[in-house]
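seq/struct pair 1
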Amino acid sequence: MKYLIYVIEDDENIRNLICVALENFGYRAAGFETAEEALEKLDALLRRGKDSARELPGMFIFDWMLPGMDGMAAIGRIREMEPFVHTPVLMLTAKDRETDIVHGLDNGADDYMTKPFGILELSARVRNLLKRSGTVREDNPSLSAGDVSIDKETREVIACGEKTDLTLKEFELLSYLMEHMNRVVTRDELLDHIWGYDYDGETRTLDMHIKTLRQKLREAGSQIKTVRGVGYRFLKEKEAGK
């Protein structure tokens, strides 16, 4: 199940940008212009009880300066709702003074980002918040496509019927590509996910890992396709004749 993230941001362009980015990274996103709209939606869902469990957000991204109730006050309200006492909250705001950051973190926010912001850093912070909170679950630890299968719990990889030993980075790279089967995954996205958003090494590192990964997967290495100038794509099946 994809996790739902509420984005409370009064600037429509920024709100839409965040929502689209989150959806591209595999989440569901719901945008709200005001805190009151988000709180009203939450109240309605909670009144419905168990029937609305799938529609409850697994994370919040709040702007601080909102029309009406500000973000900090809204976070306080949310923390009073039993289902959201420990739900991760990211404050994303233009208020960048050290005292603002401390105040935000001391009053309900689990992380704090300032504007302007980078999409890849936002993705990394969202992912890390969900991991730290225990929100992320491994619903399907096994993946299989064509001549490749992996088990995330045992870290076992079978390629062309034979067990294949991969390094940690190679395994994480293969897992991510297979999780996003047939989708073009950009080089920046892979570097962000595997090496971290603050990675400042050469992108050639990624190319070398792809090269060795293809070799270790034997004939199934052809399922990893290069999309020139963009990134890579993992195919569900080997291409004919490959």
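seq/struct pair 2
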Amino acid sequence: MTVVPFPADRWTWESARGLSRAVRVTPHAEAGLLTVSFWRDDRCAGTVRLTPAEAASLVGRLTAALAGLAEPRTAPEAGGGSVEERLAAVERRLRTLESEDPPA
């Protein structure tokens, strides 16, 4: 049996439900991938290997979901528009900034 050392750059989050469940995220720079694995007790129940673009998409969706959780459910939108509309506006502003020539 081969023992694989626990990578120093691996992150683990335990489930809020408990039940010995966790999610681990491990970057694999040599392969250009990120592994998200799902654990129950000390056994891996499944993994997903993501490209950088897929990981970025996941982070964006998690961010949008968190923003939705942080907003009051009964109060009107502070900035006007839905989270998706506000995110789209921010993305448009970023694209504009990125396309401008840098100052000399």
